[in-house]
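Hey team,

Filing this mostly as a record. A colleague (T.K.) asked me to run one chain through the structure pipeline before their review meeting, and I want the input and output archived in the tracker in case anyone asks later how it was produced. No errors, nothing strange. Just documentation.

Input sequence:
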Amino acid sequence: MGTCKNELLVNLVDQQLDHYDWIIVGGGLVGASIAYGLIQKKPHLRILVLDGEDTDHRASVGNFGLIWVQGKGFDFPAYAKWSLKGADLWPNFANQLSQTSHIDIAYERRGGLEFALNQRHLKALSEEMAAMSHHTQGDFQYTVLDRNAALDMQPGLGESVAGAIYSPQDGQVNPLYLLAALHKANQLLGVKYQPRCVVKRIEVLAQGFDADGFVAKKIVLCAGLDNERLGKQLGMHLPVNPVKGQMLITQRATPGTLKYASPQMRQTGDGTIQIGGSHEHSGLDDRSSLDVMQTIAQEAVAVLPELAQLQLVRSWGALRVMSPDGAPIYQRSQNHKGAFGVCCHSGVTLAAAHAGPLSSWLLDDSNEDYKLLIEAMNNDRFTV
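Output structure:
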């Protein structure tokens, strides 16, 4: 971890504060999506993305790659609506991003299955989906599948699979290609990028903000787990905690082994099976561990026994950026106009929403419906 130095701006004085219009602190999926949205809407803006070290704890490089609506916000109506709207924005977003960046991000929306290994679990999932449908006035679409119906959609299920939930609104993407495409598009559109820049201090100036020597009129914190520390410097309460997820990659399997993505596993574009699903509170330890790897592998094999024939070729752990209730935090500083904080663990699912309506909100140009949704997810719901 090091600090960043801006040799070009060392001698800036207040009257030169318009060197950048926006600084985005954090170059992961959240920060890159917001930068992309801002520059798309206002091509004249001078935007700087300050990114950290390659060795930092990065949720973006460990992302599972799902664009997932099922279950998100079943107990938080605004988050349910936001997740669905975000997923619905993805087709146009993916097409535009691929055209701009010339990178195929392997986006597809064939729907997703969430498997239940007993009737009790299937009932609980059904109740969550019913709540989501209610929150979205029926716009969220899903089907509760018994075992036979689930077998029709995914042959070869294990004996313990009691059923599944299917939603046509879920999808998947290659998260590494997505991040690369966002950075490439931002570069082509004129966004400046400063790597290896771990911001230590943000100063509030008369007409803007100074982030370790980089100066702009407005600033957005998208620094993941570092948002809590940086937010305090701008009078924002941004409570986040690390939740580790471990993942496994198998050798290439026959195309179509997995017909649909699920939260437990998905088949990537090159044929490998990606297996995950763990949620561990282990501080900043992002190492993979044998016991958890065994557990998630056993759960995957219980769903689809033929996976037991595949060799594991890679494993890793990554830290999710989780708020106390798991939903995003979109915060406008009440003390310092022009400062914002964005905390989110659904950087893939909500990438299109962040590039679209959220960037409009940052520009004070969002429609009333989106404005109400976004501002319902501020930090007022937490007790400081």
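Quick notes for T.K.: Residues 7-18 have pLDDT under 50 and may be disordered. The chain has three domains: 7-62+176-239+325-381, 112-168, 241-322.
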